[in-house]
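Exercise 4. Each item below gives a protein and its sequence. For each, produce the structure-token representation.

Item: Cysteine proteinase (Paraphaeosphaeria sporulosa).
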Amino acid sequence: MARWRGGSYKTMADRNEAIRAMNEFRRATKEEKRRKDKEKRDKRNADRRKAATPKARATRAAVTGRSTRSTGSRFLFPTTGTGRTDMQTEYDNISNDMPKDWLPANLRANINKMPRPNLRPRGIENPGNHCYLNSILQAFMHMPQFLHWIRGHVVTQNCTPHWEPEDPGTRPDERIYTHGPCICCSMKALVEEYWGPTDPLTRPIRWTSASLEAIKRIAFQNFDTGFSLETEARFVREQQEDAQEALVFLQNVLNDYDTRTDQFDAMFRLCLVPMHTCTDCGKHKEAVVQTDANLLVTFDKQTHNTVASAIHDKFEKYPGPESKCESATCGGANTDKLQVWIIRAAPRILTITLVVFDYQEDTPIKKLHAVEIGEELDLTRYQEVKVVPLKYRLSTVVSHSGNTANAGHYVASVRSQGASPFFNINDHRVLSINPAEFRANPQRPPGVRTMQGFQAYMLTYIMDEAPVERFLGVGARERARLAS
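Answer:
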């Protein structure tokens, strides 16, 4: 009998066949769910178009001038007459069915129905070099819509960890997982522990917490998170890692484990359309649409003094690809192109990563910067349809102190709830700060001595809800007044 680290099979082929069968079943289940979700979305879109009244079509014509062109835009796009693109309307419809306020008070009540003493955030203990993961988890804990979404996770058979058959003497930490703990179940448990009752004071989450340990095991151990057997660990348990990589990893596995992909997309995924313009004939060509849950923003310390200016240059001055123009005017002679990014659909939660690390001989060296962080972010001008304002409010700042990505320290400054909602969270330490300290860059947490301060690395913004009806059927000047 073939043995494999505590497990036994008649042959190694039997073991591989069992793993393939399990992966195939999970793949088929998820594909079937995606197919049904697509059918529901198509039916909802068809019903919405069928229910469009003559008054709605007249309003669309009054706003846009024609049914397929945005006000002030030179690009064609599909629209539903609601002041949004079809995709943005779909995002809005999905998001409107999801709660966006903070968690209800009954979650904060203990077994004796006594309310939690205060609304302060909780710290997370750091057993060693886990500050990058703690700061990202703090960002997730301060996304109200995400908190409701993760608490709505339904346990399925895929949520149960699976491991190889083991000898009686095998310790739990020596198990070889073919499918590890469910990240959604673990995150759900962490949310309820984080915002649940803590008497008499708000104590930090212990590093031995079952939910926190499950999340770390997902990041540190080798097992299957999706559809294939992993061969390498993602992060090293006792080593400093990049917080941005941890953010992307958690977003990916959360999306993989939960079947509500349409709600996840409406929360996190930014849909961008690269539009190429020939500098000779002026022909526009739409490139492949890109959707991502994390917006990377490159900046220059000499030319960009605000995050907004760096985003503007990314959207308006991005260098186009070196490819020949396909129009008859140029005849394929011109290869010089300009590229702009257009927002086709914006999520409710926008995560921005400032590219602060430059690689020099395979070593990530950080650019020390003092780029100003705005508490409000207005992206209206970059929308494909500019009728309804697109504004965000700053929710979390994850900052880093040190010279490289693999060293230093991470902290998180958050906008929480209550009369004084701003806090700086340094692992298990939670300190109240004022609004100026919250949006400062570099950040200087109280009680932390550092010459450089903490440079802003990742920003989380929450969309300001704008009543769409107010902006339909009015001119551009009136829309600007309403948006102010």
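Check: Residues 12-50 form the longest helix (39 residues).
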